[in-house]
């Protein structure tokens, strides 16, 4: 099975910063106690754990076994885990009540396959719902910088396909499954400075940590300078801190 860069660094640190946006999707879809929820491309299980906390029967699925292993077992407050690819889900048709994915299945290269698999395993009447980064926001711009730098070194870094990064394209991508709703959200994270953001990213954020092992030292230093400039540009600057604003999109479809 293919792997991603997500076993590198310490994704738990990033997941903690993402949590408010992941809880936004869970609250919006409001899965009921007892319902079966697939957290698709779960990483360390932000969504699955939140759903389990609401009494749902949640399952976390990801390609990276190292991330799934950070979850406690069900008997200790965790959830069952499955290693799998969102483009070929190892689940029966109509196996779950809802499929939720925060900043996860959007990184797979084939949006049509992702949607056809998500709607196959979701029973009619349930939600397939996801969050993605808005095309004009910080994350896609940072990823594009990373991808350009790595491409110059002959490496490939997946970016989110355009099918998931605007309100219009999300409507198009999800609409074969049913009636689509899309809304915006904004994640705000505080850092003492752009340099402090870089310190966190270069030690914890998997795609950045992976880049360090693949780039020359000077290319990596230049990448860091460019990313810090982008952080400054996308932040509000206050008293001894900056607030990094990251625009995201939430989309859901009730499967016909
Ligand atoms: C940015 S993380 C998001 C993790 C989690 N959903 C969260 O909100 O914290 C992206 C995740 O997608 C997973 N991923 C990427 N491509 C995948 C695929 N084709 N199938 C399953 N998981 C995948 C990565 O391993 C990683 O855990």
From TrEMBL:
Keywords: Methyltransferase, Transferase. SUPFAM superfamilies: S-adenosyl-L-methionine-dependent methyltransferases. InterPro entries: Methyltransf_11, SAM-dependent_MTases_sf. GO terms for biological process: methylation. Pfam families: Methyltransf_11. One of its GO terms (molecular function) is methyltransferase activity. Residues 38-129 form the Methyltransferase type domain. This is Methyltransferase domain-containing protein. It comes from Nocardioides bizhenqiangii.
């Amino acid at each position: 099975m293919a792997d991603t860069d997500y076993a590198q660094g310490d994704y738990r640190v990033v997941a903690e910063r993402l949590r408010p946006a992941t809880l936004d999707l869970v609250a919006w879809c409001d899965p009921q106690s007892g319902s079966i929820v697939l957290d698709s491309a779960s990483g360390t299980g932000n969504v699955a754990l939140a759903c389990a906390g609401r009494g749902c029967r949640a399952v976390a699925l990801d390609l990276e076994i190292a991330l799934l292993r950070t979850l406690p077992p069900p008997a200790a407050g965790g959830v069952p885990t499955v290693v799998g690819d969102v483009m070929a889900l190892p689940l029966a048709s109509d196996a779950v009540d809802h499929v939720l994915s925060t900043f996860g299945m959007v990184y797979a290269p084939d949006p049509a396959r992702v949607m056809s698999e998500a709607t196959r395993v979701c029973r009619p009447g349930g939600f397939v719902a996801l969050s993605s980064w808005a095309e004009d926001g910080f994350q896609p711009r940072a990823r594009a910088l990373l991808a350009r730098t790595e491409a110059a070194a002959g490496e490939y870094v997946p970016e989110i396909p355009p099918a998931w990064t605007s309100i219009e394209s999300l409507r198009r991508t999800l609409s074969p499954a049913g009636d689509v709703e899309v809304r915006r959200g904004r994640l705000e994270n505080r850092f003492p400075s752009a340099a402090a953001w870089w310190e966190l990213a270069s030690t914890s954020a998997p795609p950045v940590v992976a880049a360090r092992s693949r780039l020359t030292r000077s290319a990596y230093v230049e990448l860091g300078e460019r990313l810090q400039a982008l952080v400054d540009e996308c932040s509000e600057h206050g008293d001894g801190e900056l607030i990094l604003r990251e625009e995201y999109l939430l989309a859901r479809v009730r499967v016909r």
